[in-house]
Amino acid sequence: MAQVRRQANLPRPSWGWQDAAECRGEDLILFFGPDGERQPEREIRERKAKAVCMRCPVRNECLDYAVSRPEKYGTWGGLNEDERASERRRRMRRANAA
Fold this sequence. Notes:
Structural class: mainly alpha
Strand content: under 5%
Helix content: 40-55%
Order of helices and strands: HHHH
Shape: globular
Largest sheet: none
Distance between the termini: 44 Å
Number of helices: 4
């Protein structure tokens, strides 16, 4: 008998904030990078992506979405994968302390 994969009980996202995103129309490769990207190129690309995020009016909504999912890849809300993992842990500690 085939086993049914259960989806996590995550709230359905509201995508309205994306209409005002500064990254709209940008090349996705800027935020997600190509396969086989080397570290020096990644650092330059991420710096450029983060510059777009820093002037974005919906940066906080984007970051909240990515941290709550969690999005495993790319630059979201001005943070890369490792930075979002740290932010996720920080938010969990803060929630547990409350």
